[in-house]
């Protein structure tokens, strides 16, 4: 698997933080027995948003998911986000949808010997070679 998109990781961190703020009683759920987490469980939030637990988990993990605006709306509603938080959620998700630019490994260009001979400084004259390919 390729390394996660930086915005996908940030989206996951945002979702985890907002999920951690909610308590089961806040959304009409019974807390049940012992809980390992203080906020909602992933399964509970996925259920409230109408998503599969696996899909939501992949989003939180910053894995390659590209949620639609409908999914983001459902998450914003389930998390009880205010307008500012909702805009932030959409900004992160839309940024995560864009492909990461490929890293270009550029080696320094070499000036051909023929060009180098014609541009040797004569006295106090300078010369400069510019590439048209980059």
Structure commentary:
- With 134 residues, the chain is mostly helical.
- Helix content is 48%, strand content 0%.
- It is built from six helices and no strands.
- The chain has helices spanning 6-21, 42-49, 53-60, 69-79, 83-97, 113-118.
- Helix 2 crosses helix 3 (53-60), helix 2 (42-49) crosses helix 4 (69-79) and helix 4 (69-79) runs antiparallel to helix 5.
- The longest helix has 16 residues, at 6-21.
- The two termini are 31 Å apart.
- The relative contact order is 0.14.
- The model has no long low-confidence stretch (mean pLDDT 83).
Residues in β-strands, percent: under 5%
Oligomeric nature of the chains:
single chain
Class by alpha and beta content: mainly alpha
Poorly predicted segments: none
> What about the largest sheet?
none
What would you report as the Rg, rounded to the nearest angstrom?
26 Å
The total strand number stands at: 0
Please give the alpha-carbon distance between the first and last residues. 31 Å
Task: Spell out the key features of this protein.
rod-shaped
Concise overview:
The chain is mostly helical. It is built from six helices and no strands.
What is the topology?
Blueprint: H1 6-21, H2 42-49, H3 53-60, H4 69-79, H5 83-97, H6 113-118
Helix pairs in contact: 1-5, 2-3, 2-4, 4-5
